[in-house]
Amino acid sequence: MIRHLFTLIWNRKKSNFLMITEIFFSFIVLFGVLSLAFFYLDNYRKPLGFEYDRVWVMNMRWNQEKPEEVRNIQYRLKQQLKSNPEVAQVALAASNIPYTMNTSNTGFNYNNRFTMADWFTVDKDFAEVMQVDVAAGRWFTTEDNAAGTKAIIINQALRNEIFPDENPVGKVIREKDNPDRKIVGVVEIFRQKGEYSSDKPGYFEYLNTDYASNGTAGGTLDNLMIRVKPGVTRAFEEKLMKQASQIAQGWTIEIKTMNEMRTSDNKITLIPLVIFSVVCGFLILNVALGLFGVLWYNINRRISEIGLRRAVGAASGQVYRQFIGEVLVLATFGIIIGIIIALQFPLLQVFGVQTGVYVAAILGSVLVIYLLAAGCAAYPSQQAASITPATALHEE
Amino acid sequence: MNNYTLNPLATNNASVDTPPHHQKTVIKLTDIEKVYQTKTIETVALHNINIAIRKGEFVSIMGPSGCGKSTLLNIMGLLDEPSSGTIEIDGASVKSYSDKVLARLRNEKIGFVFQSYHLINDLSVVDNVELPLLYRQLSGSDRRKRALAALEKVGLSARTKHFPNQLSGGQRQRVAIARALAGQPEIILADEPTGNLDSVMGNEIMDILLRLNEEEQTTIVMVTHDELMAKKTERLIRLFDGSQVS
Ligand SMILES: Nc1ncnc2c1ncn2[C@@H]1O[C@H](COP(=O)(O)OP(=O)(O)OP(=O)(O)O)[C@@H](O)[C@H]1O
Ligand SMILES: [Mg+2]
């Protein structure tokens, strides 16, 4: 019977072409949406590499002060904030902290291996504030204050790219025009862009922000990261603000909880998925209506065929199954073309998304398209099956 | 009722001198009524029909247009239900049969031939002939074998890969007969099989049916408008306005 259906569809390929094309397009769009959704889902299940809860971020914008002056003020502000009983720890970090749009990246070269890597400048207290765990080696300490080389800590993704078979701890990265960078540790993961982002190569670079021991070296950092103790409420913000305005006079200070930053950043991340899904939804609705209409039309045109099949021995249920089967075969043609296209994504690795995500998206799309086709075919097919044979044969 | 002696195959009145294979009744209609009910009018298509078709008979049905011939044939072929009365196939009433059982009876016992052929244009000749076999448990090669054998019988072995619209009317009707034969039914019900054909092609079709009846003892009930065709059969049933007149 299946072969019979394939023969029928194949012989009617001209009139079925439009429907196959429609099914193909909806398959592709659905595949896109599901790929994105599964990509997010896959990422969502991975660890972030830090704890955003109870972290408050004080963003600072200063005026015409010289860098040493800025560092001096920041140092004093950090000490002041830390002295509050509500505060567990305070760290200074560059602008590209988690849940911001800011990105810093740079090439990473070692032993003829190269990758682009995110690059986060932080001080030694950052790990404690963000609860970053070190997997190998150690976190930054005052040992790293020694001038000459810069201490860095790489993430596992960077290690996999550059040091697949060797222990990176202790390795020194030498590049002309750049100070030497020495790897002192490895962290498992640190996904700055949040739970929906993929795990990318990246490293922390140490900056000594202890003004008393620092003199003039190093740059300036924009954010004070504050880990507050459990039970601290938003009312504490006012106190922080007051202390900041006394020490950093004339600076523009903004305080946000990382929870808030996370909520708004994740919303922005999800917007494309939502838009894409809505478009996909309309497309699928359109395809569903189209399928339904075409089926309805086809079945009405084929009433005498239905009568004939009943006359030669098809039971009503067989007519029903035949029409559903035809639509599924039709869908199969569209799906096969769709899969051929969809398979190019994992094969060519265009977006560097894991193959499993694409496979799941393909399977999901196949399932949805089959369900859609069967759903659209159910009613027309049932109508076809309920025609009495004599009436059907009457029609010409 | 049935005393045409022109048929070279049946020289005797069946009710007087029944050959052995004529004894078993394959289709028996008793007190059949068929009323078509539409919104405004009620059409009595068949009234008080009592017919027994015996195995191996070649029966023709005649009557003016609209007198109920097709309706009668459809009821005999289990394609339509009578409003009242009973249909027996091989001595058993089909009243309580489910759609599935009726479909199987149609598939195994009965072959249909229609005036307008009812071929599926998107299927090749051989695929069309295979159609009844699709509803049986048969392997693909078995189906093909039987379809080709049926086409051979109607002399169309050279056209198996053609499509219906590449054939003449007579050839199409031969395909339709091959389709009816493919399932090796006991009974063939033919509704004006020569109605759309000229006399030469009509005679070809008629010869095929006569040969089937003679050589394979296939029971045939044929609706026709053509007295000459009817005279070639053993028995004639005349209908007028839904009732039997002979
Ligand atoms: N589905 C139907 N609904 C209503 N009336 C019908 C239906 N089918 C047939 N009839 C009516 O029943 C009567 C018998 O129709 P039938 O088709 O059996 O005639 P027929 O003898 O085969 O005619 P013809 O020689 O023209 O084929 C006609 O009056 C017809 O109008
Ligand atoms: Mg008729």
TrEMBL record, chain A:
Keyword terms, alphabetized: Cell membrane, Membrane, Transmembrane, Transmembrane helix
Domain annotation MacB-like periplasmic core: ranges: 53-235
Stretches that traverse the bilayer: 20-41, 270-298, 319-345, 357-379
Pfam family, one: MacB_PCD
GO molecular function, one term: transmembrane transporter activity
Any one cellular-component term (Gene Ontology): plasma membrane
PANTHER family: ABC TRANSPORTER PERMEASE YTRF (PTHR30572:SF4), MEMBRANE COMPONENT OF TRANSPORTER-RELATED (PTHR30572)
Family: Belongs to the ABC-4 integral membrane protein family.
Name recorded for this polypeptide: FtsX-like permease family protein
